[in-house]
Amino acid sequence: MATRSQRKQLAVAAILALMAALLAACGGSSSAKPTLNWYINPDTGGQDAVAKKCSTDQYTIATQVLPTDATQQRIQLARRLAASDSSIDLMSIDPPYTAEFANAGYLAPIADRFAAKLKSQSFKSAIAAATWKGKLVVAPFWSNTQVLWYRKSFVDKAGIDMSKPVTWDQLIKVASQNGGTVAVQANRYEGYVVWINALVSGAGGSLVQDAAKGVDAKITINSPAGEDAAKVIEELAGSSAKPADLSVSTEGTASTTFGSSKGAFMVNWTFIWHNYDETDPAVAKDIGYAMYPETVAGEQARPPYGGIGIGVSSFSNHIDLATKAMECITSPDNQGINAELTGNMPASAAGYDYPPLKKLYPPDLLALFQKSLQVAAPRSVTPYWGDISSAILSTWHSPTSVNDQTPQESATFIEQVLKGDALL
Amino acid sequence: MTTATAARPVTARRTTDRSAAESRLATKLVAPAVILMLLVTAYPMLQALYLSLFRYRLTTPGEREFVGLNNYTTALTDSLFWNDLFNTVVIMVVSVAVELVIGFAFAMVMHKIIFGRGVMRTSILIPYGIITVVSAFAWQFAFSLNNGFVNGWLSWLPWISPDTNWFGSHWPAMFAIIASEIWKTTPFMSLLLLAGLSQVSEDMLEAAQVDGATWFQRLYKVILPNMRAAIMVAVLFRALDAFRIFDNIFVMTKGAQKTESSSFLTYRQVIEQFQLGMGSALSVLLFLSVLILAFGIVKLFRVDLAQARGES
């Protein structure tokens, strides 16, 4: 039997061996060319192509795909960043969560020189969505907006003039009188809030004012504009123009409704133009487009703003390289390449000059996209957007329950939620 | 922790040098396990208790603020909390009741069948082998308005049309969720019941038959009383399981149409809204509810877990 001192020596030797093995495992791979991890939202290969094009001798950009749902993207990124995960270098960030990330200190600051360049090249709405407390915090990469898509055959049959601005009220009436549907996004998800925000903005209102004050922001959904928005939803939900799946409708199901025999009108993002090319060429030929519908007749419609901004993580080990990569990714040419492959349109007018886009889209549609982006209404930029959006959903969903009391109820509820007095 | 207390009697005895050294060695040997247990179970639980006293958001850590029991009062006075608790109880009661009946029938079949025993048992158990998320998606597609077959199959019912949106209102959505839950976990129930069924002595059944008892009399007077412990264990396990329902709701409705359960509410606070304080408070409340439920079932039905294992 071993003596006590022998046992001790053995134990010390074992511990040393273990530590040596651990240290060896930690070292290594420091001399090789660094790989920058770019967390992207799923698309049809646009960001992959840009990542390849922007990889240089100094670094390689590798893409990591996030979940499809914007809420899940936010959850994954925020939880990793809250734990100071250094494996994220670049991120594709959806506009409603930009402020939250910036406020939490997750985003590396953008140099003034580059910020100035971005400000001069990007659309106004893109800059508004990417700014927090007066500073540009992400680089606008692509900007999306919704337009009103219609079936030409239906419009001819119904005899409505689409060359002039139309209102929601008009659309719903025409569609229900002629056996058509008005497809929207009204499932319990961010897309429904996008619609509500567009309706309220279109009536000259807003959901939140002084959003930078965070919890003390002024909730302004309880206003005549909020009531106008509720009226549109109530009217559609109570009419025969309502799609059967209204309360669970998303961008995808709306495009199915629009492509069906009852399809007439739909508000949806830019990708719709090439959506039916392969699945239903007859529908593809029948698509017309116009400016987003007006909430109130005679008042400029404010179409939704969507898109992606590129942010550099402040926990990255390669902030300098990632910033260089960000400059490359958001250059107008690369915005064009991404748009060509995905249908997600550039965040800058210069991006629209990318020649292949002119072959893929008719010039008046490209002009409509740009015009829509000029007047688009981004969702309120606040670090509490997640709470506000969920609170709106729990009071405005399902669309069939919306009435003239809804704006007031939701305003009270949002305030309670922000103060921590109500469960969300 | 149990290993640490087990070591104590040894030291309590009159000690020789050798036994003292052995007990010291024993303490050293179990220490890593005890520390690990404390780290992975006790620490998170205490941390949750501690966090539940704060208003704390993951993305605004600077605004963390001590609020005492405020989170608990907010939760307990909020109608959403009680609504979700009610939903959870409805799902639990309905699914366990239905599963008990179907599961018992399946257990009888598995017990009595002579031909193709393996095939029959396997086919009854298949749903339990499927991951809950996968089964939830399968059922969501089945009930879906756009690509489901349920509307087509049930079109002979007067209130079902091709346009029936199952996830469009509260009760149909709850029906779909409960149906999926029942389909998925009935095999588990029948497995537990089968174990109980095989403990019923054949001699007693034969004696009853000789005494002229009918099939129903044998079921009610012999089989069920002898299976009581097994039935209660099955109900206890499934009730606790069903009370924590999450996956089906997450996949099928994401909590829309007021179909949220208590677990889902907790998930949303912690994971979706990063409200670590409120979320921890809800976790604690959920834990207490499960504890009360387990205690209630054990007391109410006088479940003897030892008896269920055949140790009586």
Automatic annotation (TrEMBL), chain A:
Extent of the signal sequence: 1-24
GO BP, one annotated term: maltodextrin transmembrane transport
Alphabetically ordered keywords of this record: Signal, Transport
GO molecular function: maltose binding
Family classification: Belongs to the bacterial solute-binding protein 1 family.
PANTHER family documented for this protein: MALTOSE-BINDING PERIPLASMIC PROTEIN (PTHR30061), MALTOSE_MALTODEXTRIN-BINDING PERIPLASMIC PROTEIN (PTHR30061:SF50)
Name the record gives this protein: Extracellular solute-binding protein
Species this chain originates from: Nocardioides mesophilus
Taxonomic lineage of the native organism: Bacteria, Bacillati, Actinomycetota, Actinomycetes, Propionibacteriales
